[in-house]
Design brief:
12 strands; alpha/beta; TIM Barrel; single chain; about 40% helix; 8-stranded parallel barrel
Length: about 325
C-alpha cells in the first residue's frame, strides 16, 4: 500500500480565535459574516482550537463549514487542553484568558494518549465535522514540554498512522519548544506564532533549520505582531504581546516602515508575505473579527511585493539575508 500524499495547505488561512469572542464578543451573525467574507475572499484553510472561547470557536466554525463541500477546504484544530465543567462557575466570564464567554467550563491539561484521542473526538463533535486534516499539540511548554515530547507527540503520531488525521504538529510561540518538538518527532507542520515575522525572527536561529533538516513545514501565525504591522503608520503606543513595545523594537519597526514606503509597498502586505519567502513556510494564518479585515488580508496577500524590497530590508539587517 502506498504512503498517503502529504497534506497541502493553502498559502493563506484564517485563524479563528476571534470566533471564540477573543477580546470582544461577537454575535453568531457577526461571526458568520466574518467567515462569509473569508470564504468569498478565497480563503480555504481554517484553524481553530478548543481553547478559543471554551469551544465556541469550534462550534461556530463547524456550523459554517458544514455548509461547504468538505473537499474544498483544509481544517486544523488542536489538542492538549480538555474542556470540563467548571465547579467554581458563578456566572462570570473567561476574561482572564481574554475570551468573552461564560466560564462554565475549564481547561484541563492532558497529554496522555487517551486524553489526546478524547480531545480529537470532542472537537469533532463540537465542529460537527468528522475529518480534521491537521492536528496540533497546543502550547505544550505552558504545561510540561518533557511530557509532551515523551507522550503527546507519540500519541499524535499514532493517530496519523491510524488514519485519524492526515497531518500532525505543534503550535507555540516559544522557539525552544518548537525546535525541540521538530527534532524529537516526525511532524508534518508546526504553527509558529509571532516568532517569524517581518519585525522579529527568533525562529530563524533554530526552528527553521530544524524544519529544513526534518522536512517539516511551517504555518506562520501572528504575523502582524499584535497589530503593530497591520497599518502603514505604526503607533508608538501599540501593544506588544503582553506589555509595552520595547524601544529597540520600536526603532526597528520605524526603519522597516521607512523601507517599505521607499519601495511603495504597504507595510501590512510586506508583513503578511514575508514569512512565505522562506522555503520551509507553507502558509500564513491571520485572524480578524470584522468582514472588512478578512477582505483586506486577502488583498495584502495578493499584492505585488518586489524582490528589491526584501533585498533592501536584508541589506539593512532587518531580515535574514
Amino acid at each position: 500500500m502506498s504512503a498517503p500524499e502529504p497534506l497541502t495547505v493553502p498559502t493563506l488561512g484564517y485563524g479563528a480565535a476571534n470566533l471564540g469572542n477573543l477580546f470582544r464578543a461577537l454575535t453568531d451573525d457577526q461571526a458568520w459574516a466574518v467567515l462569509d467574507a473569508a470564504w468569498e475572499s478565497g480563503i480555504r484553510f481554517f484553524d481553530t482550537a478548543p481553547h478559543y472561547g471554551l469551544g465556541l470557536s469550534e462550534r461556530r466554525l463547524g456550523a459554517f463549514l458544514q455548509t461547504k463541500p468538505r473537499k474544498d477546504y483544509v481544517l486544523s484544530t488542536k489538542v492538549g487542553r480538555l474542556l470540563r465543567p467548571n465547579p467554581d462557575h458563578d456566572g462570570g466570564l473567561d476574561t482572564a484568558n481574554d475570551f468573552h464567554v461564560p466560564d462554565d467550563l475549564r481547561r484541563v491539561w492532558d497529554f496522555s494518549a487517551d486524553g489526546i484521542r478524547a480531545s480529537l473526538a470532542e472537537s469533532r463533535e463540537r465542529l460537527g465535522i468528522e475529518r480534521i486534516d491537521l492536528l496540533y499539540l497546543h502550547d505544550p511548554e505552558r504545561h510540561d514540554l518533557d511530557l509532551a515530547l515523551a507522550e503527546a507527540l507519540p500519541a499524535l503520531e499514532r493517530l496519523r498512522a491510524d488514519g485519524e488525521v492526515a497531518a500532525i504538529g505543534i503550535g507555540s510561540m516559544v522557539s525552544d519548544a518548537l525546535a525541540a518538538a521538530v527534532r524529537s518527532a516526525d511532524l508534518d507542520l508546526i504553527m509558529v506564532a509571532g516568532r517569524y515575522t517581518l519585525l522579529e525572527q527568533p525562529a530563524a536561529a533554530e526552528v527553521l533549520p530544524a524544519c529544513r533538516a526534518k522536512g517539516t513545514g511551517i504555518v506562520a501565525a501572528s504575523v502582524f505582531n499584535s497589530g503593530l504591522l497591520a497599518s502603514n503608520e505604526p503607533r508608538r503606543d501599540g501593544r506588544y504581546e503582553y506589555g509595552r513595545l520595547p524601544d529597540a523594537l520600536w526603532d526597528r519597526l520605524v526603519r522597516i516602515a521607512r523601507v517599505c514606503a521607499e519601495h511603495d509597498v504597504s507595510l501590512p502586505a510586506a508583513a503578511l508575505q514575508f514569512p512565505l519567502q522562506s522555503d520551509v513556510v507553507r502558509s500564513v494564518v491571520v485572524g480578524g473579527s470584522r468582514p472588512e479585515q478578512l477582505r483586506q488580508n486577502a488583498e495584502w496577500a495578493s499584492a505585488t511585493v518586489p524582490a528589491e524590497l526584501w533585498d533592501a530590508l536584508a541589506a539593512e539587517g532587518l531580515i535574514p539575508a
